[in-house]
Amino acid sequence: MDKKTIIVTGGAGFIGSNFVYHMLGKYPNYRIVCVDCLTYAGNLSTLKKALENPNFRFAKIDIRDAEAIDKLFAEEHPDIVVNFAAESHVDRSIRDPKIFLETNIMGPEVLMEACKKYNVSRYHQVSTDEVYGDLPLDRPDLFFTETTNLHASSPYSASKASADLVTLAYHRTYGLPVTISRCSNNYGPYHFPEKLIPLMIINALHDKPLPVYGDGLNVRDWLYVEDHCKAIDLIIHNGKVGEVYNVGGHNEMANIDIVKLILKELGKPESLITFVEDRKGHDRRYAIDPTKIHNELGWLPETKFADGIVKTIKWYLENEDWWQEIISGDYQNYYEKMYGDK
Ligand code: NAD
Ligand code: TDX
To answer: Which CATH number is associated with domain 5-339?
Structure first.
């Protein structure tokens, strides 16, 4: 198998770290270089096992820092760059949009400039289904395809949609070999506890109220994180340059049903559920049509939600050290600010 150097940005976060482990496990000849500036969402303890692998390097760099990125590219001469680095939480983007625009739009620009200069053979932008806006609850026949118009609702999704446009412009204008994936909601190990599934697991374990926004009927299309990693692996190796691929597993669920399932698995009462004020501009339903990636690259999700959620809950039960460290630190202040008055 060929030797390749792959730069994975945001590799200390949820999906990026799962991708690092997927690639180190599957490609023993590859060098994986993780670039991450370790924001509140990045955690070096997540990469503890990777750091013991001689094929792995960690570089603490902000993707907006063009000089540091240039220096790293000069040292590593990467074949492929996969950009996971982003501000990723919708609620935080509603409170403070600026950092979202700076990281999620300007970061990719810095990375693509370096890719252009060092003739990188693939820049992959990890995007999201949220760039399409939302679908109505009463039209279950509608799905997002790659040609659905961009129609972002939150500052987070607007910044991701902007990055997609800039990425496609680098392809058209400079011939940069890019690909984009737009995936639905992920769940699994190392998911930061501010997001729905880990937050509900951890609150339930502490017998704390489970804050459900609005009527709890908003629908998300959940995919086990390993299936997303496998899709990106296929796209960077076999995907067509200049193309966008939707990734999703046809697993739509209402938030309230997810919350009830978690309570049932943990043997906790539904009386813990507390309906709180809705998220501003809250998208109603996301649903991905993954026909293109299935037909062109043979991708299909492998983990059923019923199995994935049990595996995920088990992971949180067995890895309390990982999340205790997070919830006992700065995150506590965020939780108070976010939910204190709800
Ligand atoms: P995350 O918040 O868990 O991790 C983001 C990582 O990026 C962190 O390690 C953080 O330290 C790092 N980072 C942030 N700003 C940086 C900067 N300026 N320079 C370097 N590193 C920086 O996010 P996630 O949920 O793993 O999402 C990863 C990517 O996947 C994001 O681009 C997100 O938009 C996309 N995505 C996420 C989901 C999901 O369900 N979580 C679904 C579809 C797409
Ligand atoms: O406390 C909560 N209560 C609640 O009802 C939280 C944190 C969330 N919710 C609802 C809002 C959403 O309808 O649960 C749903 C899921 O919320 P999040 O976990 O915040 O995810 P979402 O807003 O759907 O965005 C996620 O998927 C797409 C990721 O965070 C994004 O980075 C990704 O692009």
So the answer is: 3.40.50.720
